[in-house]
Specification:
Length: 482
């Protein structure tokens, strides 16, 4: 059975690139009928950020991505945490020592720095020099035993052959060959007893029976080390797939300098989870060229790692804005009205009837990209007009317009509440325009100004129907009588 994992480090808030990695693992597992596991790789205590793990859990829940397996907490599966499994990694590091595929090294930080300086002066790429540094090979068995028994600080390093080559295979990248002499003797177990990412990652992937490792391109340089480590244990390798980088519009690696990069930033800005998930899914993968809107179930049915691109994917915020608007228009107005409530409160519109709020959402949703925009775009639907567009007024309000608006208000007043609907309002306005010998637009523009104060908005007659008979007539007359 296919088994994949998403394994973030809690060193910051969930990045949109990490959301994509987690999503691709999820889509692949669901497509193949397999399992997707969440594993928190929290062995780096120096870079640990308080609250990061909780943010990771909350953002995936918000995105609608559920993981399988793990510790059972409160009726749901929680993540595995590497910090709770350190004894396992120490046991496996010792196993490598016994196999002769790893070794003890006792170098101090100062000694390692001097080694790097010598290599730099000689124009040599930085790499642990096994033949000259203090390790069990140069010290000998007796001295190594003495240092171990005395509790001298040490690390355990991977033994990389000095000759030959390591071949790797990647579903996205294809085959690669690395000369072993270029691969560093990676530290596996640090002097504090905690494993490095490399050891813990491989041990957990093996013990959890991971069949496919789907992760970001930034881990590609580590692939030959991981392949050697699998061989050092004598274990079968999983299949690897390294995903392309996310790039800014300038084709540089996406960073905070380019704007928001945390998933929570997009949540707070009012992006819909369905839209963000759809958008990041297409950053490096697209099942078909004829459309770009794919609900989760469709993405699951169509997902194929073989169709993931090698080239970096441009993070186009304008496209995300467009996609958010597309999703927004398809959602039930009741949900949108509920999502709008916090933004209504921020704008000072409290106590608005939910049924009325839903009507306003339905009225303007074709003209916005975000739920949060509704209280700003359609503020006139929730209270009196505060500001009138003077430039719009100068263009469309003529000396005769006030009289025309008062006459129109009288005509519209003949419609009772039951007939205060779009079609009836439309009929009255067009009949009045015809009686004046002018186009309907000559009335509609000043009507919009009087009722909304703005030059753009939803259909004028639809707006008046939702706003109501009394309020619409009051505003028409009030502006004309200023």
């Amino acid at each position: 059975m296919v088994r994949v994992r998403f394994a973030p480090s809690p060193t910051g808030m969930l990045h949109v690139g990490s959301l994509r990695s987690g999503l691709y693992n999820y889509l692949f597992a669901r497509h193949m009928g397999g399992a997707c596991i969440l594993r928190i790789e929290d062995t780096d205590q120096v870079r640990f950020v308080e609250g990061a793990e909780q943010n990771i859990l909350e953002m995936f829940a918000w995105a609608g991505i559920e993981f399988d397996e793990g510790p059972h907490v409160g009726g749901a599966y929680g993540p595995y945490r590497q910090s709770e499994r350190t004894a396992i990694y120490r046991e496996h590091a010792q196993f490598l020592i016994e196999r002769g595929t790893a070794y003890y090294a006792f170098d101090t930080a100062e000694e390692l720095e001097r080694m790097r300086e010598r290599q730099q002066q000689a124009g040599i790429a930085p790499k642990y020099d096994r033949s000259s540094m203090r390790n069990q090979f140069t010290l000998g068995e007796e001295e190594t035993k003495r240092l171990l028994e005395s509790g001298t600080d040490r690390v355990i390093r991977l033994f990389v052959p000095l000759t030959g080559e390591t071949r790797t295979s990647d579903i996205v990248r294809g085959e690669s060959v690395f000369a072993n002499r270029t691969i560093d003797d990676q530290i596996l177990l640090k002097s504090d007893g905690f494993p490095t990412y490399h050891l813990a990652n491989i041990v957990d992937d093996h013990l959890m029976e991971i069949t496919h490792v789907i992760r970001g391109e930034e881990w590609l340089p580590s692939l030959p080390k991981h392949v050697i480590l699998y061989d050092a244990f004598g274990w079968d390798r999983p299949q690897f797939a390294h995903l392309p980088l996310l790039l800014s519009p300038e084709r540089k690696k996406l960073s905070k300098r380019d704007g928001d990069v945390a998933v929570s930033d997009y949540k707070e800005k009012g992006f819909l989870p369905e839209a963000l998930v759809n958008f990041v899914a297409l950053l490096g993968w697209n099942p078909t060229a004829d459309r770009e809107i794919f609900p989760m179930e469709e993405m699951i049915s169509m997902f194929d790692l073989a169709k993931v691109n090698k080239a970096g994917a441009i993070f186009d915020i304008e496209k995300l804005n467009w996609m958010n608007g597309m999703y927004l228009r398809e959602l039930p107005v009741e949900r949108l009205a509920a999502d709008m409530q916090p933004f209504m409160e921020q704008a000072g519109f409290n106590g608005v009837d939910p049924a009325y709020a839903a009507k306003v959402v339905n009225l303007v949703k074709e003209r916005i990209h975000f739920v949060k925009d509704i209280p700003l775009f359609a503020d006139y639907m929730f209270g009196p007009v505060k500001n009138f567009d003077e430039e719009y007024a100068a263009k469309h309000w003529k000396p005769e317009t006030a009289g025309q608006m008062l006459e129109l208000a009288d005509r519209l007043e003949t419609l009772d509440e039951a007939n205060w609907i779009t079609e009836k309002i439309d009929g009255v306005v067009r009949a009045h325009a015809e009686s004046l010998g002018i186009s309907a637009g000559k009335l509609i523009h000043p009507m919009r100004l009087s009722i909304t104060g703005k030059r753009v908005g939803a259909g004028m007659f639809e707006t008046m129907e939702v706003l109501g008979r009394t309020e619409s007539l009051t505003r028409l007359r009030a502006y004309a009588q200023r």
